[in-house]
Specification:
CATH class of the largest domain: Alpha Beta
Strand content: 15-25%
CATH topology of the largest domain: Rossmann fold
Number of helices: 8
Largest sheet: 6 strands, mixed
Strand order of the largest sheet: 10-11-9-12-13-14
CATH superfamily of the largest domain: P-loop containing nucleotide triphosphate hydrolases
Order of helices and strands: EEEEEEEEEHEEHEHEHEHEEEEHHHEE
Structural class: alpha/beta
Shape: elongated
Number of domains: 3
Length: about 425
């Protein structure tokens, strides 16, 4: 069973907290600070492996996590770094962050590695804060938090060319003939339930290419009808499309052709821009020659006639496909939008405006709440078990302009200000 899409949560390890400690030993006066730094949290990596063919392992494994770093200790003992963890995925896996569908990476080669969650840095112990001006630092730093996110894994098969068309036009039969694939075939729609790959060998040219057989498309596939939407993603890597249209008379060839072209266009990955070979299949059917002639007349160009029964047209088709593949560059899975025009960076005053570090809420009288991803993340680094730690936090809040923002919101002396689980009294 081909599992080609999975959503998992990844969590990297938190950095270990730095230690707040002073050296105490008999006959060693003024030993000084000796709190060690915390260890780095483990990171989460994905690695592409050619011997992995499906995302089945992630169908039920919903959490990929690394361990936290070890805390620092007295006597300048540094915490151990946590081990990074690596999970194997098939070659051809594309990774997105679920929130905002942000592209993270394309693991298209065997051995490609992608870090999907970076481990947090270890916090500094009080020994790291010692200086000529601060001889007795009573402050230590908490470890940086790890990353937590949900990611989408999508497998997009690595094929050079793909067979597309309505169900029962002969795609699987053709793949079986030109390669050693053993795809089930039958005379009813949707025999093929998942993409199949085969290697086509051309002895005359001393060449090979990978051909994919896609489950039949129907009208509305891009909206989720039939099996098409589940497998259209596999066509995105293909450099050439072989569009098979049946001449058996069960449906009008030109209407079938335009319907599939519309589905490729509406899918939204510019599939209609791929080089395409149009094939008239089942030419051994009664009246096929007349239908092919009428089809070509409506198209305005010649198509390749094909019969699996007599194997007519198969060799010319494979040679033409290889010729197109050879001169067509791979299509990128993801194109990053550039903000450069004519080689010069264009700055947008709104886009480049510095994101505010905090937001102040006023839920009720005499209470103000400081929120925001940046300020809460920074707050997590401060060890508030000592007066110096609290002083460092207050200095940071003053530096980012909390006092001015509170005044703008109408705060007066004696009001309560809350940041996460830390509260203090506002004094102008």
């Amino acid at each position: 069973m081909l599992i080609d899409r999975a959503i998992v949560e990844v969590r990297s390890g938190k950095g270990g907290d730095g230690a707040l400690s002073f050296h105490r030993e008999k006959n060693v006066p003024k030993g000084g600070p000796d709190g060690g730094n915390g260890g780095r949290g483990g990171s989460v990596f994905l690695i592409a492996k050619s011997n992995v063919n499906t995302l089945l392992a992630y169908r039920h494994s919903r959490l990929l996590a690394a361990e936290d770093g070890e805390k620092g200790d007295k006597k300048l003992q540094f915490g151990h770094n946590a081990a990074d963890v690596t999970f194997e995925v098939p070659v051809g896996t594309v990774v997105y962050e679920e929130e905002g569908n942000r592209f993270l990476g394309d693991l298209s080669h065997d051995g490609d590695i992608l870090c999907v969650a970076k481990g947090g840095r270890g916090g500094r112990g009080n020994a790291a804060f010692k200086s000529s001006r601060l001889r007795v630092p009573r402050v230590a730093e908490n470890g940086h938090p790890g990353e937590k996110k949900r990611i989408i894994l999508e497998l997009k098969l690595l094929a050079d060319a793909a067979l597309v068309g309505f169900p029962s036009v002969g795609k699987s039969t053709l793949l079986n003939i030109v390669s050693k694939a053993s795809v089930a075939t039958a005379d009813y729609p949707f025999t093929t339930l998942e993409p199949n790959l085969g290697v086509v060998t051309l002895p005359d040219l001393g060449a090979q290419f990978v051909l994919a057989d896609m489950p039949g498309l129907i009208e509305g596939a891009h909206e989720g009808k039939g099996l098409g939407i589940a497998f259209l993603r596999h066509i995105e890597r293909c450099r050439v499309l072989i569009h098979m249209v049946s001449m058996d008379g069960e449906r009008d060839p030109y209407e079938a052709y335009t319907a599939i072209q519309d589905e490729l266009r509406l899918y939204g990955a510019k599939l209609e821009e791929r080089p395409q070979i149009v094939v008239a299949s089942k030419m051994d059917a009664d009246g096929a020659e007349e239908r092919k002639a009428e089809f070509e007349k409506k198209l305005g160009f010649k198509v390749i006639g094909l019969s699996a029964l007599t194997e007519e047209g198969i060799t010319p088709l494979m040679k033409k496909a290889y010729e197109l593949i050879s001169k067509t560059e791979p299509f990128p899975i993801y194109i990053e939008e550039s903000d450069e025009v004519g080689g010069m960076k264009v700055y947008d005053a709104h886009k480049d405006d510095k994101e505010r570090e905090f937001v102040i809420l006023h839920p009720k009288d005499h209470l103000f709440v400081i929120t925001g991803e940046k300020v809460t993340k920074e707050y997590g680094l401060y060890n508030l078990s000592s007066d110096q730690g609290v002083s460092r936090l207050i200095a940071y809040l003053n530096r980012i302009g909390i006092d001015e923002a509170l005044l703008e919101k109408g705060a007066v002396d004696g009001d309560t200000v809350q940041l996460c689980d830390f509260t203090f009294e506002f004094i102008q």
